[in-house]
Design a protein that fits this description.
This protein is mainly α and 349 residues long. The chain has 15 helices and no strands. α2 crosses α13 and α3 runs antiparallel to α11.
């Protein structure tokens, strides 16, 4: 029980410490931290537009967090979520543009599946290199990110370019946008992708904890040698883990292409959503429910930062610092544990 409580307390304490240090930085920089944090959080609970935008921001963060967490649960560290997201984005948009004359109940799942397959195939490469040649997945996934960025840009320029340095818009039958959701959130960009993200979180939980395949994947993550001795095909499970992880990332890209933007632009740099997924998974302790809650926090911070800048004139970059501090304090769980024990000894908790 104590172990469970400690796991729950680490992210809470990490967020509190990050907000405290962030407030000190604001104070030393000449800003009012109370006004800034009030501007940041008040709209997230009272303003329908900011609520809608926060949920919209959560959607790809949940999926990219699931991608990182799934690989981590199976003993792998997928740094290539950003690249897998980009190829999934492009694949889903292509299907959304090219396929015509089909109803939405076929077109939308088909486009999402295309994103998942593209992301999975992008994850297959580092998975195979890891299983066959023992090449560390961190190196290959980082490299694949850059390959994905430039390959997707090249494909758009060569075959899909429309005015504005982007693709054409997808067919209405492939869109996840919802006029109803937009109207009730003061015309935010909220779409049905949040439903897909929550279903994906349930799928990850079920696959890892309720299936034989999930048991084998987790066993390989815990101990490859023992798994091999027990008759589990280690190489197959390494590849499968990276493919599934890449599939989650590809769906994250599909949510951007089919929901938020309805097209894909030529990117001068990474979107950052894939890298944010690492932080979401870390804060969410690589659990499905934890990732949803962490994505809500990160999405709220990113969207609320816009209001913080408008009301308190605090640069939104300070929220990036707060997010970095959250990651630092979560990673420094030993320090949090030590502080908690010191407080316990004094009888304050």
């Amino acid at each position: 029980m104590q172990k469970i409580l400690f796991k729950l307390s680490v992210p809470v304490i990490a967020v509190a410490l990050a907000l405290l240090v962030g407030g000190i930085l604001m104070l030393t920089s000449g800003y009012d931290p109370f006004e800034a944090y009030y501007a940041l959080f008040s709209v997230l609970f009272t303003d329908s537009y900011f609520i809608g935008e926060t949920i919209r921001q959560m959607t790809p963060l949940i999926l990219s967090g699931l991608a990182v967490a799934f690989a981590f649960r199976t003993g792998l560290f997928n740094i290539g979520v950003e690249g897998q997201l980009l190829v999934g984005w492009l694949a889903s948009v292509y299907v959304g543009i090219a396929v015509e004359g089909v109803p939405a109940f076929i077109h939308v799942p088909l486009a999402i599946l295309a994103g998942a397959l593209a992301g999975g195939l992008w994850g297959l490469v580092p998975g195979y290199l890891k299983a066959r040649f023992k090449v560390h997945e961190v190196i290959t996934t980082i490299m694949m990110n850059y390959v994905a960025l430039h390959v997707t840009n090249s494909i758009i320029r060569s075959y899909l370019l429309a005015p504005g340095e982007r693709t054409e818009e997808i067919q209405p039958s492939a869109s996840l946008s919802s006029m109803f959701l937009q109207e009730i959130t003061d015309f935010s960009r909220l779409h049905y992708g949040i439903v897909v993200a929550i279903l994906a979180a349930i799928l990850m939980w079920y696959l890892l904890w309720k299936t034989t395949t999930g048991y084998e994947l987790r066993a390989v993550g815990f101990n490859q040698h023992a798994s091999d001795y027990a008759g589990i095909n280690v190489s197959k499970n390494i590849v499968l883990s990276m493919v599934i992880s890449g599939g989650f990332a590809g769906v994250a890209g599909a949510m951007e292409g089919l929901g938020t933007y309805q097209y894909m632009t030529i990117n001068a740099a990474f979107t950052g959503v894939g890298f944010d997924g690492i932080a979401v998974a870390l804060l969410g302790a690589n659990s499905a429910i934890g990732i949803i809650l962490a994505a809500a926090l990160f999405g709220g911070l990113k969207i609320g930062a816009l209001n913080m800048q408008a009301i308190a004139q605090v640069p939104p970059e300070l929220i990036t610092i707060v997010i970095a501090l959250i990651i630092f304090f979560v990673a420094s769980s030993y320090l949090v544990h030590w502080l908690r024990n010191r407080i316990n000894k004094r009888g304050k908790i």
